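Handout for the seminar on molecular recognition.
Each group receives one record of this type.
Step one: identify the two inputs.
Step two: read the structure output and locate the region that could contact pyridoxal-5'-phosphate.
Step three: write two sentences on what you found, then compare them with the reference statements printed after the record.
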Amino acid sequence: MKTNRINSRHVPIYRDAAFDLRDADTTESAFDADSRDPLHIHDFIYTRYRNPTVMAVEEQLAELEGSAWAFLTQSGMAAIDTALSVFQEAGRQRPWLFFSEIYGGTYTFINEVLVRRRGLDIHWFTGAKDHYDLQQLRRLLDELHPSLLYFEAVSNPMLTVADGREVIRLAREAGSAVIIDNTFATPYLWKPLDDGADLVVHSATKYLSGHGNLLAGVICGNDTALAGEVNVYRKLTGHMLAPEEAARLGDQMLTFSVRMERHCHNALQVAQLLEKHPAVEKVYYPGLEKHPTHAEAVSLFGDKGFGGMVTFDMAGSNEAEKTENLDRFVKKVSEAITLMPTLGNTETTLLPVEAIWGEKYPGPGLIRMSVGIEETEELLEVLRKALG
Ligand code: PLP
């Protein structure tokens, strides 16, 4: 199947910073069309506005996410900034509501940029213990009447899965727009736009590119007016992705669904191994029947799998023993598996949770693992050996 409209197996790289506008008339019509009709390019003008390579990969992404359009940015954070800024005028009139269980960088961005620098009225939905408490969410929506709700379907690092369809339905009923960061679930598992979300954002640095060799973000949507807003904001803030990076992302996306299938397969095997191992106290993986949001995960993801992230807690009769066990495991496992503050790579990586997120989560024995696409038995053997 073709993945883009350009008649080439790989997306050609147009390295031009600016394009030949030929004469005064075509110059005027190019500028006019870019601001009036962001979804159809008549003439390219300047790469910070639009670029043919970037657009070809955007078409590839839109096809994957099932969206009318997609816009690439230089990082996931730039995509989040862009998506949120589109709703900022509404945010001056009515508050915004965020799930508190979100990526730490987004959490800090909200506090440092949206609240401290832009003065927006932000509220947090903290209702995730084992499950998201949707009664509490409903009460907050009624009480605050927010103009925007923002969440991630799979929480980080505890992998609590929200009943995404119901959350979108409640938000829309309350008159709120919805943005979803779908980085963890990816369109392989869930396509939130099909269920009524207004915008979907991704850190394409993670599963979409999958090799840990580039930074990128993407915003996907169906509404043409929102596309215009995203286009203008990206153009004026310089959040555009470089064509070389876009081309590489496009190439790496050709294996996206194969990689995802394998991430899901390996992660389930790893979770099942850890669940039975005496050196492990508890495993948090939505694919395990014991996981508190297994039912939500099945309902949202169907039979495709449960993602590539596995979080687990080392055994130990007290905190000191857990710390000791974690240190011993990490030391051994790091001969084969890298400790890295990212996820979604082809190779397995891991992070001790307390070192990154502090003491908010179940204790010093917690590890978040991004399970790669290695040969399954080899990976399981590395873990068995390191667990002792
Ligand atoms: N969203 C999620 C869920 C993430 O995990 C990350 C980064 O780890 C981001 C957004 C930010 O992406 P980037 O690092 O590409 O800016």
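Reference statements: The radius of gyration is 22 Å. Residues 74 and 316 are 43 Å apart (CA to CA).
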